[in-house]
Amino acid sequence: MLSIVEPTSGFSALARQYKRLARxxxxxxxxxxxxxxxxxxxxxxxxxxxxxxTYLVKGGMLSMAHQKKRLLTWxxxxxxxxxxxxxxxxxxADAAVLLLGFDTEALHAAxxxxxTRARQWTQLMLTQQALWVRxxxxxxxxxxxxxxxxxxxxxxxxxxxxGENADYVFSLFEGQAEVLVDDVxxxxxxxxxxxxxxxxxxxxxxxxxxxxxxxxxxxxxxxHQFEQLIRANPSMIHGLLTDMARQITRLNxxxxxxxxxxxxxxxxxxxxxx
Length: 274
Description:
alpha+beta; Jelly Rolls; 4-stranded antiparallel β-sheet; elongated; cNMP-bd_dom_sf; Env_Response_Regulators; Cyclic nucleotide-binding domain-containing protein; RmlC-like_jellyroll
């Protein structure tokens, strides 16, 4: 396993350990794999690789990328596990590659049936996790430290109250909440949405109340540190602009419907700019 970026401390030693454990685990397995010969390709899934199978690299090198960004290169002796989501990962071969593919469920059953292999499997998973952490550290630039807090709200509790000062931005990562203006429900917000960002950026009071409809879990980021985060993370700015554009489009549809004397279109979602 080779890192595309400058590896962090300990990466090389962990990569060697990963290869050793993979070799020990697959030695004399009670199941057989299928040989796959890959010619040079920019998308190995289109030329024989199955994203649900586990592969042992027998020869050559195979690059792994996500969102068009190369992450690392697997080489001889590496064991490649399927991606949990089954999408988004791309493998590229610049030269011929020889793979040995296993049915993942059959491999798992064979491993757990033997105490020694079960221990090797656990060590392999721990080593892979350690590799991912170091790879992530190498890929990610230095980010400002924040005093973010986790908070939980039960149904009926207010996350944001209309008229209050905007001291925090909230990231809703679990649950669903209702948006109210002057105690009138105007929409819902769900998992993955930022609450209160616009009020923080414009330094204005909260323009709406956000109340939990189910158990909600949020991350609270202080105002000044949120500004540091968006300066250090341009993708966050892109996400905010996308949300704002989507909200403006929905509000325009609502205004047109009301101006024509009809009801607001179903599914209108008022922005949580509070």
